Each structure stands twice: as structure tokens, then as C-alpha cells.
Amino acid sequence: MFNPENFFSLQEHLFASLFTGSEHTWDVLKKLPDFCREFVQGNVTKIRNGQILIPQTTILFEDKVITDSFIIDTAHKPPQVIFDGEILEGASIIYAGAVLMSDDIYLGKNTVVEPGAYINGPAYIGDFTEVRHGAYIRGNVLVGESCVVGHATEIKSSVLLGDSKAGHFAYIGDSILGKVNLGAGTKLANLKITGSLIVITAAGKTYHTGLKKFGAILGDGVETGCNSVTAPGTIMGKDVLLYPNGTARGYYPPKTIIKFKQIQQSQGYEFA
Prior knowledge:
Elements: H1 16-19, H2 28-40, E1 58-61, E2 64-66, E3 70-73, E4 80-83, E5 86-87, E6 92-94, E7 99-100, E8 105-107, E9 112-113, E10 118-119, E11 123-125, E12 130-131, E13 136-137, E14 141-145, E15 148-151, E16 154-156, E17 158-162, E18 165-168, E19 171-173, E20 176-177, E21 181-182, E22 187-188, E23 199-202, E24 205-208, E25 216-218, E26 223-224, E27 229-230, E28 234-236, E29 241-242, E30 247-248, E31 251-252, E32 256-258, E33 265-266, E34 269-271
Parallel strand pairs: 6-9, 7-10, 8-11, 9-12, 10-13, 11-14, 12-15, 13-16, 14-17, 15-18, 16-19, 17-20, 18-21, 19-22, 20-25, 21-26, 22-27, 25-28, 26-29, 27-30, 28-31, 29-32, 32-34
Antiparallel strand pairs: 1-2, 1-6, 3-4, 4-5, 23-24, 33-34
């Protein structure tokens, strides 16, 4: 019921091996720190050059680190980097004012890290991903391709599998996200007020996760409205919709719409 294949498309996925052998998707969170550390080990240690605050805009292209004589054309998305009259296909940009707290940070191709972003490792940032101004990545984070870690969005101990958008003011703690979109102000709470271990109840069965910190599992196609909140241990199947200002807790099967507390049927969706 809660195996990863029911929530995500993992065939030949970059992070697929993290999920191997996990009967329940939340078990991945227990393996994440070791996996993340090994996954990024030895990468891009030369970016910082001993500095935490990046003092000048830096271009990463293949094995080169370029710090001057380039042009950034922001009319394109991702921005194009021109150097010696040539477009550097696949170049990534770290703007001046970004903060890289450690060397165990990997940045993929065509990735942009904006001024004021804060990244602590281990962290993997995939191709075509935006880390926007004011983003706060706290470590043990895997971000796949074509993701957005937006302004004032905080992530720790989490996996964004790809095409995962958290554009504005989100909190993502100890969570696993597929191809989702989080409305501005979405909060995935990861710790119960009582501090007790998180237990999941579904279909009359109780699952003891063994986790004290567990935010949410959001399957492919999940959408959350602005200022929505999920309680610790919330699990949403594919294509679940959480309306603005809504609060969700527990397990929601695919195509559920979480709106107030009414139950209706509409176009194949179940309201909860």
C-alpha cells in the first residue's frame, strides 16, 4: 500500500537506488543521511575556494570554474552564459552573495543559485533547477531535475524527485516529494507537538514508522493551495489536491480533494 512505486515513477530515476528494498516509503528517510553523503562525496569542492560567501558571480562549465569575462543572457530560461563569443551549453550559475557552507554540495547542469541562497551539505542539486533568493537548504537534501527551491523556502532531510516546485515561503522537513507543486506558504510539519513517534493509520491497520521526525509523502501530481499545512506523517497518493488554507493529516488515496470536511464526488475525485 505504501511502497514507493504507488507514489512515484522511479524507473531509471537518478535516486532510484535509495528506494530499493523499502517496503514503506517513509523507510527511505532513515537511509537518507548515509545515501546523501555518499551520493555527493567528492563533488565540486573547488567552488568555494575556502570561502563561505561567494564574492563574485561564478560559472561552472564542465570542469571549469569561470569568474570573469562572461556574459549572462537572462532573456532565456535557463539563462545562457556566453564566454569568448560562444554559448556554454549546460553551464550553471552561482550568483555573488550565495552562501555555500560546506564542500559536499553538487550542482548539476543549467542550475542557477541566486544571491542570498544558503546551502549546507550534503546536498545534491539536479540539472535545470533553480535555487532562488533566500532559499535555505540545511543538509541531507536531494533535489532532482527541473525543480524550484523558491524564495524563503526551507528544506532539510528531504527528497525532491524532479519537477518538484516549492516556489514561495514553503517549509519541507523530513519529506519525500514527487512531481508536485506547493502553493505559497505551504508547510510540511515534521515534528509532533508531543514529540512522540509518528504512527500511520490506514484501512484499519496501524503502521509504526519508528520516526520522531517525519513530514509528508506527496505522490506525483499533488497540488497544495496557498497557506496549507500538513501534520507530521501526512501521506498523499497521486493527484491529491489540498485547497488553500487547508490542513491535512493522515493518509489520502489518489485523486482525493481535501476541502473543509465535506465528502463529495466530482469527476472521479473524492472530497475529504
